[in-house]
Amino acid sequence: MKFLKQITDNPIFKVSSLNTISVLIKIAGGLLASKIIAIFLGPAGLALVGNFRNFVRQAEVFGTLGFENGIIKYIAENENDDPKKQRVITTVFYSVLAAIIVLSIILVIFADTLNTLFFGDEHTYDWIFRIMILALPWYIGNLVFVGILNGLTRYKEVIKINIWGNVTGVLLSAILIWQLNVPGALLGLVISPSLMFLASFYFLKKQLGSFSFLHIKKFDSSILKGLLSYSLMSLVTTAIGPLVAISIRTHIIDDHSANEAGFWEAMSRISFFYLMFVSTLLTVYFFPKLSAAKTNKETNNVFWSYYKTIVPIFGLGLLTIFLLRNFIVRLLFNDDFLPMTDLFLWQLIGDFLKVIALILGYEFFAKKMTKAFIITEITSYVILYFSSHYFIRLFGAEGAVMGHAITYMLYLFVLGFYFRKKLFISNK
């Protein structure tokens, strides 16, 4: 009881409680969307939607130039320095505007090529890439605004924005999937995130008063240079991560079946749902703390506040998910997906190790350790690629989650060794 009281009295718990409501709403929406996709599209359709989700993530990072973590760091560092803060926001605004224009041109010119790459020759969804052009300014604008609010430590506002976006996005996506099947699911992925712009614009304007300072004269090339370090880190992840995921999905289809690929995609979706709690809490609460930490001792305190509060609760949650896996599969999908219950053990082991390692990975961004991040990130994807492909040949979709667990076991070991001086500080 004393242990539980220590957790509930912790300020992290108070923030995470509101965050939990946001995540639960998003999960509920994800459950509804997954159920509709399972009924109307089946495992093969889920795999198709998964490919497009990977592309949307790539477009998101390219459109923001990978600035999201950089925005949080620079705003957090200059929260009380209005002139510097305004230069940061102005530099981000004009840089991202240029990126949106370039990305829109690419979508117009290469829509057919992107359709073949992500959907195959048998599908004609090139139009979805062109529709993205209309949604990009609002979608990317929201990501930038949320990053600024995060840097200003406006935790509650950020979580409220997520709640608003999840509720409206769920309703829109559910209607689109119900009415249009696969095209509806694709449209939902494009349009839903842009709805959050209204809420983020409202809260940021309330915080800043106005945007009259957005003058090109305040564009600061030195700030841009610093932000580009974060771009490099984010773009490495975005360029490699989705390609590895597509490769794994394609390998499962070629060696086994589209249904098995659908099982793996379904498992990935469930993983995404429960990892949202940790990832959003890391971004909203812990990353600004790491960015503000000046000494190893301060960083150590942030690390261990995470390990003492979040990790134990997450571990209990994973145990519950494993015990209820049959019920969860039937709830989220249908009986056609029951073979995927064999994937849970390795996926949950990998995700637990991933969550332990995540806060160490955020330290790369907090201290702008570009070279170390790129080396460890590329190494982890290489391990994932080869281990997954090797085990897929032997065990099918289960081999993919085995590769996932092995990757994060090695990743955690490497990061633990690299940050050992910050992790283990003597109190003497």
Automatic annotation (TrEMBL):
InterPro entries given in the database record: Poly_Biosynth_Transport, Polysacc_synth, WzxE
Residues annotated as transmembrane: 23-49, 92-111, 127-149, 161-180, 186-204, 224-246, 266-288, 309-332, 344-365, 372-395, 401-419
Cell location: Cell membrane
UniProtKB keywords: Cell membrane, Membrane, Transmembrane, Transmembrane helix
KW Transmembrane helix (keyword) present: yes
Keyword presence, DNA-binding: no
Pfam families found in the cross-reference section: Polysacc_synt (PF01943)
Lipid bilayer topology: Multi-pass membrane protein
Name of protein: O-antigen translocase
Upper lineage: Bacteria, Pseudomonadati, Bacteroidota, Flavobacteriia, Flavobacteriales
